[in-house]
Amino acid sequence: MLFPTIVYGPVHSRRLGLSLGVNLMPVTVKLCTFDCIYCECGFNTPVSHPVLPTREEVRNALESCLQGMTEMPDVITFSGNGEPTLHPDFEGIIDDTLSLRDRYCPKAQVCVLSNSTQLGREDVVRALKKVNQRILKLDSAVDETMRAIDCPVNKDLTVERIVEHLEQFGGAFTLQTCFLSGTRDGRVIDNTTEEEVQAWYKVVERLHPERIMIYVIDRATPVKTLSKTPRERMEQIAAPLREKGYDVEISA
Hints:
Layout: E1 7-13, E2 17-23, H1 55-68, E3 75-79, H2 90-104, E4 109-114, H3 122-130, E5 133-137, H4 143-150, H5 159-166, E6 174-178, E7 180-184, E8 187-190, H6 194-207, E9 211-215, E10 226-228, H7 231-243, E11 248-251
Parallel strand pairs: 2-3, 3-4, 4-5, 5-6, 6-9, 9-11
Antiparallel strand pairs: 1-2, 7-8, 7-10
């Protein structure tokens, strides 16, 4: 499922409320630093010269949409056909969005869903610190499993590097993790085992995020041999963290 426009929706998000989406990636292909086996947008499509919307095009599309809305969104969400922070003008686009939000829907929040791979860029970190919600992903605390689930384009990417970059926010972000199990080409992939969850708990304790979102597969996935994690298991994963005072939201 690809988003064919720069601005889409609003849609009723199970996590965010009435969400107006902004897609900074191409409208015809998925472009991402990950190639997650559960991504609703499918797998990446190799392109030599991907065409991204310009900062001006994003600003104009968002303003036009906000001007025509009768019910204002609860949140303006950067997501779409890949990793939004890949856009070279990401910080400027965030500045424009905050200005438009203040003008047309000052009660709305601005949210970025990110896979955490571009946090080595100072401009991306600055931009993320300006928005209301930074929802940053880490699907496993084990390198082998992270690579099996997320299939990073950078084969040298490690969990430790991601975690070090997440530490820049001092806990002021939402940690997002998709729990799943299944196989791919006969190989078992499962981040819901006790060993996996215990390793993930250690990262949570290290980062101490202000909020944690754990969720399950909700739509069709490009790898068809994956299973939705039962609600009971999700509650088991959340319980020890809630006992320690963490704000854990389950979308299952």
